[in-house]
Amino acid sequence: MGLFLATAQAFIIMMGVSLGVMVLTLGFTIFWVRREVKDKIYAFFVEPNNQISRELIKTNGTMKISAKDGGDYILAPSKTKWSKWPPGLPSWAQEIVPTLFYTRNNPEPFDPEKARSILTAQSLRHITDEGMLRATWRDAHEAAGDNIGGSKWTLRLAVVNSIIIVSLIVVVGFMYKMLSSAASSINELLNIVKGL
After folding, report:
1. Mind giving me the DSSP string for 125-166?
2. Tens of pLDDT along 96-137?
3. What's the CA gap between 70 and 57, in Å, rounded?
4. What is the SS3 assignment for 100?
5. CA-to-CA separations, 130 to 84, 126, 189, in angstroms, rounded
6. pTM of the model
7. Residue 85, phi then psi, degrees to nearest 5
8. How far apart are CA 175 and CA 181, in angstroms?
9. What are the two backbone dihedrals, phi and then psi, of residue 19, each rounded to the nearest 5 degrees?
């Protein structure tokens, strides 16, 4: 009975400490995020190499911001969107910040909603009709002949799968053997304790 009480007491202490650390961590995270986004704007930059970079930039109370590259960019309230920062955290820990989209070295922000496209979502759905795709694949397969899915590829895939399955069986067997020897050792210890 004493062992059970000691274990329960240790478990309660461990859970209390874990809960305390978790509450402190969550509180600090929320406080830090709110402090970081105060008077800042989240800017997305389309780089010359077509990559997108993101910066959280202080607004300084003027109608322009200064990015890390040293350039000044105009704030345009009519083109401002809203997004959550920082990316990667759960939504409850993120803060909503004003967001603008820029092309690097172009001080005027652009509005992604105003971009015109010839292709609409509905026309894309009609273009990617399943029957049409099957006919296209069938025509491509007939044109390529037997070069698609040759026997060498199938043989290699079968060998790799066989090796993986055999290694998994060996690992499971080894673990079973270890667990059974551990169980017999525990039974021997219990018999010794019962004998005392």
Report:
1. HHHT-HHHHHHHHHHHHHHHGGGTT-HHHHHHHHHHHHHHHH
2. 999 999 999 999 999 888 876 666 776 676 666 777 777 777
3. 12
4. strand
5. 37, 9, 65
6. 0.53
7. -130, 145
8. 10
9. -65, -40
